[in-house]
Amino acid sequence: MSGDKKVILVTGGTGLVGKAIQTVVTEDERADEEWIFLGSKDGDLSDKIQTKAIFEKYRPTHVIHLAAMVGGLFHNMSHNLDFLRKNIHINDNVLQTSFETGVVKVVSCLSTCIFPDKTTYPIDESMVHNGPPHPSNFGYSYAKRLIDIYNRAYHEQHGCCFTSVIPCNVFGPHDNFSLESSHVIPALIRKMHDQIQKDNSENATFTVLGTGKPLRQFIFSLDLARLFLWVLREYNNVDPIILSVDEEDEVTISKAAETIAKAWDFRGRLVYDTSQADGQHKKTASNAKLRSFLPDFKFTPFSDAIQQTVEWFRENHKRDARL
Ligand code: NAP
Ligand code: GDP
Question: In this structure, which CATH number among 3.30.565.10, 3.40.980.10, 3.90.25.10, 3.30.2320.30 belongs to the domain 173-216+248-284+301-317?
Fold first, then answer.
């Protein structure tokens, strides 16, 4: 490290959130920051030796830790053990290697879907460990909850500044649009594109899985990226902070599907396959802590962000395997 220059390593830097941080960093470059964005091709972080090699190569002073096995409801339901083990291994390697190599600060990523299933609303940061998570994604949830436990233990035993953020559902350019493992927004964008190729007449139907009634808070990846930069630069508490849109911006899955249909100019009819799982009914989170620091932060309106994501998919889907 030369002078006070920060070397910031972003694990999971090739994914939805990592790519958004890369975009935002280029709009707000700072002379004292060098950024490194890595994906799984640069090394498997579930392997301790490969993790150490990465840290020895890049010598980061700061880490944004995004790398994880990530997937939508249906992928989680069928792979709870894999989500649990993979994410525990990745997190243990990244946090312990950060400690061993003297990293000054680590910001890791939890999710609002790891909160207790039976709870009062809105959920806040104090409630992460207050009861079992929803059964559909307990593997992912317990692995993610442990990050907060690690952060407290590294702080208590060694004085480390390892912290975490808790985003609500994220979407945007570079999302995982695959049919097998995607979250609801990229899944619907991708499937509606495929439907429109076949038939976009008034007689066409498009199937949304579940009842369409569950509620979600969705954050545009570029808004989340701006908040991540603020956390890295300004937020120095070990306790997690929720990074979510406001409570009144929560939407139903059917509203999300209708917004996507409008963005694609889909002329047919939406139908609901109620034999499919709904997952958690809602996980409404309070962003009061975030608002106490950034009262004027402006989130991109949901329909604008959906339109930008659809346009990005339209322009890029032939180039990327995840599309
Ligand atoms: P993503 O698009 O699936 O990206 C995952 C990233 O992790 C990719 O860069 C991937 O590399 C990397 N990765 C996966 N396994 C790895 C391994 N064994 N070794 C090294 N790198 C590995 O996921 P995302 O949506 O950006 O999620 C980023 C973070 O946000 C995650 O921690 C996730 O839990 C959290 N989060 C996401 C959401 C959401 O709605 N998406 C909501 C809340 C929190 P390759 O692509 O090169 O394989
Ligand atoms: P969650 O927010 O963690 O539950 O994960 P998702 O992003 O996968 O959202 C799941 C919600 O969207 C559930 O209510 C599903 O029933 C609904 N949904 C509707 N169609 C789809 C789809 O094609 N894929 C996914 N993943 N979810 C869908």
Answer: 3.90.25.10
Q: What is the pTM of this model?
A: 0.97
Q: What is d(CA 170, CA 38) in angstroms, rounded to the nearest whole number?
A: 20
Parts of the chain belonging to CATH 3.90.25.10: 173-216+248-284+301-317
pLDDT tens digit sequence for 250-299: 999 999 999 999 999 999 999 999 999 999 999 999 999 999 999 999 99
68 lines ligand 1 (CB under 6 A): yes
Beta strands in the chain (DSSP E): 6-11, 33-37, 62-65, 105-109, 161-167, 169-171, 205-209, 215-216, 218-220, 241-243, 251-252, 269-273
Closest ligand relative to 208 C-alpha: 2
Calpha distance 274→295 (Å, rounded): 40
Residue 279 CA to ligand 2 centre (angstroms) = 7
- What is the pairing mode between strands 6-11 and 215-216? unpaired
